[in-house]
Amino acid sequence: MKILVLTGxxxxxxxxxxxxxxxxxxxxxxxxxxxxxEVYGSIEAFxxxxxxxxxxxxxxxxxxxxxxxxxxxxxxxxxxxxPIKFPVxxxxxxxxxxxxxxxxxxxxxxxxxxxxINIGGDGSQKISKTLFDKGLPMIGVPKTIDNDLSATDxxxxxxxxxxxxxDSFDKLVTTAESHHxxxxxxxxxxxxxWIALHTAIAGGAEICLIPEIPYDINKLVKKIDGRYKNGRxxxxxxxxxxxxxxxxxxxxxxxxxxxxxxxxxxVAYQLSxxxxxxxxxxxxRETVLGHTQRGGTPVAFDRVLxxxxxxxxxxxxxxxxxxxxxxxxxxxxxxxxLEEATAEYNFLSKDSYLVRAAKGLGISFGD
Length: 367
Fold this sequence. Notes:
The chain is of the alpha/beta class.
């Protein structure tokens, strides 16, 4: 059996642990059965297959040794290699998108891979589904720090992102108290508020703003004023990059050339201005964590989950269970169809116990 592994979209702590998990399980199968099980990696997602010359490397014990403790991905990654909507810069500098999926299918079939393991988030698994429908032996592994895939209870990388955000938030709490300030910390998450809310609960925030619950700026000012007496007090706010006011839109800019997504970020500064314009008298400072949440050593939970995902992905390939994505459900490693995996975005429900518990702890959402 000849297996291709690739990592697409944004990086997440734990990607290397999946790669290692696939390789080590394949090697063990080879030793036990006496049959050759070879694992290869495509550099920068599908770019490694589409590029001329192709960039495909054979994974070995040396290449994969100890990589589970490292952030990023040894196979590199990109969010500009969607074969269904492939970006090509034109002579005039503009970017046009072309469907290269049939070309990709032909190239992969010519390489005689028996299974293709695509490690990625919502967009990557939609690509997996399309390629599976075109006849490729696809297997998906869910990856996103945003925890926005509904077919799995949790994704690797999420816990590490929350831990990084919480560590940073803890440091802001003490400086907010010392200076009687309002501290706003912006975290990632795109259209989902999972990182923000987990961080707010773990860090003891007074206010948490998430995309799923648009906020009323006047209610936030009232909440802040209630924390001050004679100019003394402090407030700590966690805001997700996709959060927005009831009367307004998300803070975003055009994405880079070749990217399908708008670029989120800067909402902390926007909120700071809104608070000042609404009459907030307290000093306000802003912190944007940005890509620190994506990098560094994965926490133990993410290493374990990613390793289990890698082993399961190989076993799906071994049993020829294609068109499926590995998933973590009810404390069990299982799999779901790619169709189910991409059917619904994992928004944070405003009626969820997590939100209700946060409100019970006194956290305001500005609603």
